[in-house]
Design goal:
It is a single chain. Strand 16 and strand 17 form a beta hairpin. Helix 3 runs parallel beside helix 4 and helix 15 crosses helix 17. The protein folds into 2 domains: 211 residues, 3-Layer(aba) Sandwich (Rossmann fold); 275 residues, UDP-N-acetylmuramoyl-L-alanine:D-glutamate ligase (3-Layer(aba) Sandwich). The protein starts with a strand and ends with a helix. It is α/β, with parallel strands linked by helices. The strands form 2 sheets. Strands 1-9-18-17-16-15-14-13-10-11-12 form an 11-stranded mixed beta sheet. Strands 4-3-2-5-6-7-8 form a 7-stranded parallel beta sheet, with helices on both faces. It is 41% helix and 15% strand.
Amino acid sequence: MKRIITAEQVRTADQHTIANEPIASIDLMERAAKAFSKCFLSLIPSTCSIHVVCGTGNNGGDGLAVTRLLREKGYHVRCSLVNVSSNLSPDCQENLNRLITPPDLVSEADDLVIEEDVVVDALFGSGLNRSVTGLFAEIIEKINASKAKTVSIDMPSGLFSDQVDPSGAIVKADLTIAFQRPKLSFLIPESGMYVGEFQIADIGLDEAFIESLPSDYFLIEQSDIAAFLPIRKKFQHKGDFGRVQIFSGSFGKIGAAFLCGKAVLKAGAGLLTVHIPKCGYEIIQSTLPEAMVTVDDSDNQISSGEIFENTYALCVGPGLGTDPATVQWLELVLKQNHKRMVIDADALNILAAHPKLMDNVPQGSILTPHVGEFNRLFGPSTDGLGRIEKMRSVASDRNWVIVLKGAHTAVALPNGKVVFNTTGNSGMATAGSGDVLSGIITGLMSQGLKSEEAAMAGVYLHGMAGDLAEKSVGEMSLMASDLLHKLPESIINVRHASFI
């Protein structure tokens, strides 16, 4: 896992690299500009006209260097330098000196005219310590009002690295090319909305030093997931890959049981038993013949059903409903069962309505709420960062794993760490997607993965399946069943990358 570091730690890493590589700060800036330009070249055709808008600090210096490098590559680039009455940082001044064709000088907003295809935002970087107002706010408003696509250098100007504060003017980027690491604010809904898509440009900071810095936030990497996945031996049998029970479905929601159950099996579980109300028996038997089925005493909801002694992994919740009989059954199960569980959907809503039941949720269990379910469970937060802090606290106090679903799904671990997922797309915001995720996590857990490993691997593989499906059907047409079709390819991709 790669750790996410604060703006202050970024400055420390810069200084450490400068002192210990050693490298001059102007040369590190040049290296950053080259890394940005390389990424830019791969994404923006040279037929596009470019307008680089620079501030007076080091982010502006990056912009001036990028202007020079893109011109050398044949791009038509216009450059504007804003608020030239202020002193430029030394490295910004040096890159100004290196430009053959000087930038346009902008001392008021009307001086800035954007007619190009792409505007490169190089006003402020991660060192920003107050909201943007005045002239720079007016410049940002002009950038946002333009028809040009916007690409930000390192981070959108006006955005803070480590906090959510939308009070000032902030560039709304279509793409952000960040240096070395994304910022925590990229991964939080209220601030991440300004980032657009983001790419990471390696600028050669000392990785060993970065990994030595304290952090509670991390990014999941493919190599992590490859290390988690079990390796099958030739003479193993289905019993070696785990016995799973899922309690899912109610009248009108049997599809949730199918999606979750099929995901369990696609994720590699050896044996699956689906417990459903009577109304779902024929549906599950005909659509999921690989599963065994136990039938509830009730026709339309789950009100009975026992956990088998030899069950290794449990999933409760998809399509469950919140009928009073179901509530009574879940209360009994939680009091009697001590095996870790995956708890999703209506099981979470029952816990929210009956919070004392949370005291009986076994340690090591995995809760998979979306934002609405999380707020019902633990109360609303002022913003996404506050919500992350709250889930971190609950996971630590309760010894649970909490999977907060959404863009860059966050996984809170019992040790107080939070890891963010890097796969997935907005096409996955569709009915049944969460049922598939719960099934994947449960199927992985059944094969001996720790709860933390199963949760992280589950969200990564789920997101990768979504990315693969998006390539086939697009974001608008993506359905939960498409995730099931692409899950095997997702697992193969991860395994292939780690063969030797």
